[in-house]
Amino acid sequence: MQKNKFIVIEGLEGAGKTNACICIKKILNQYNIKNIILVRQPGSTPIAEEIRKLIQKKFDTDNFIKETELLLMYAARIQLIETIIKPALKNGKWVICDRHDLSSLAYQGGGLGIKKTIITQLKNLFLKDFIPDLTIYLDISPKIGLKRALKRSPLDQIENRSLNFFKKARKIYLKNIKLNQKIIKINANLDLKTVTKNITKKMSNWLHKQVI
Ligand code: Z5A
C-alpha cells in the first residue's frame, strides 16, 4: 500500500521534463497507481495559465524587473497549489508537477541574481512546510538544452536570455541537489532512450522504498 505523493520534475530548457512527466506516469501505472494528475508551473489553472502567458511575453517598451517576475512565479505557484495540488493530494491523487519552487531559486535567484534570503522568505511565507516528496532533477548543459528547445519552437522572453543566465541557473540546481536528499539527479545530456531507462530505474528504486 503506497500513500499518494507529490513528485516534481526540474531542469533547464530542453532537459526533457515533458518526456519525464509522461515516463513517471507510466511507471506509476505499472505499479497499479492510476489516480494521477499532471500539472505544470507556471500554469495548470486558468489564472496561472494567464500569468504564464504574461511572463513569456516580449514587450516592446517595457521589461519585467526581476522582482516582478519572481512575484508572478509565486502567484502562479500558490494559485496552483491551493486550488489544484493540495485538494488532489487530499483526495488520494498522486501529483506530478513540471517545475516547482526550485525553478525560482535557479532562474530568478541564480539567473537574475535575486538574493536567496528574499526567495526563501517568500517560500516560508507561502509554501511553509509544503514540500515535494520527490524531485527529479534533469541535469543538462545549457548549450544542449537550448539547442533542443530551439528545435521545438521559437524562444520566449526567458528562453532568449544569455547562456550565462542558464549557466548560473544550473549552478544553483547543482548546489541544491547536494543539500536535499529528496532530489534525484539524472544526466539529461544522454539520448532519450537512456534518459528514460535511467529515470525508470531510479523511480522504481524510490517507489520500492515508499512501501508503508
Ligand atoms: N520559470 C522560472 O523562471 N521560474 C519559475 O519559478 C518557474 C518557471 C516555475 C516555463 O517553464 C518558463 O518559466 C521557463 C522557466 C520559467 N522558461 N524558460 N526559459 P517550462 O518548464 O514550461 O518551459 P521550458 O523549460 O522552456 O520547457 P521545455 O523547453 O519544454 O523543456 P522540457 O519540458 O524540459 O523539454 P521537452 O519538451 O521534454 O523537450 C524539448 C525537446 O527536446 C523536445 O523536442 C524533445 O523531444 C527533445 N528531447 C527531450 N529529451 C531529449 C533527449 N534526451 N535527447 C534528445 N532530444 C530530447
From TrEMBL:
<keyword id="KW-0808">Transferase</keyword>
<dbReference type="GO" id="GO:0006235">
    <property type="term" value="P:dTTP biosynthetic process"/>
</dbReference>
<protein>
    <recommendedName>
        <fullName>Thymidylate kinase</fullName>
        <ecNumber>2.7.4.9</ecNumber>
    </recommendedName>
</protein>
<dbReference type="InterPro" id="IPR018095">
    <property type="entry name" value="Thymidylate_kin_CS"/>
</dbReference>
<dbReference type="Pfam" id="PF02223">
    <property type="entry name" value="Thymidylate_kin"/>
</dbReference>
<keyword id="KW-0547">Nucleotide-binding</keyword>
<dbReference type="GO" id="GO:0005524">
    <property type="term" value="F:ATP binding"/>
</dbReference>
<comment type="similarity">
    <text>Belongs to the thymidylate kinase family.</text>
</comment>
<feature type="binding site">
    <location>
        <begin position="11"/>
        <end position="18"/>
    </location>
    <ligand>
        <name>ATP</name>
    </ligand>
</feature>
<keyword id="KW-0067">ATP-binding</keyword>
<dbReference type="GO" id="GO:0006227">
    <property type="term" value="P:dUDP biosynthetic process"/>
</dbReference>
<dbReference type="InterPro" id="IPR018094">
    <property type="entry name" value="Thymidylate_kinase"/>
</dbReference>
<dbReference type="GO" id="GO:0004798">
    <property type="term" value="F:dTMP kinase activity"/>
</dbReference>
<feature type="domain" description="Thymidylate kinase-like">
    <location>
        <begin position="9"/>
        <end position="199"/>
    </location>
</feature>
<dbReference type="GO" id="GO:0005829">
    <property type="term" value="C:cytosol"/>
</dbReference>
<comment type="function">
    <text>Phosphorylation of dTMP to form dTDP in both de novo and salvage pathways of dTTP synthesis.</text>
</comment>
<keyword id="KW-0418">Kinase</keyword>
<dbReference type="InterPro" id="IPR039430">
    <property type="entry name" value="Thymidylate_kin-like_dom"/>
</dbReference>
<keyword id="KW-0545">Nucleotide biosynthesis</keyword>
<dbReference type="GO" id="GO:0006233">
    <property type="term" value="P:dTDP biosynthetic process"/>
</dbReference>
<dbReference type="InterPro" id="IPR027417">
    <property type="entry name" value="P-loop_NTPase"/>
</dbReference>
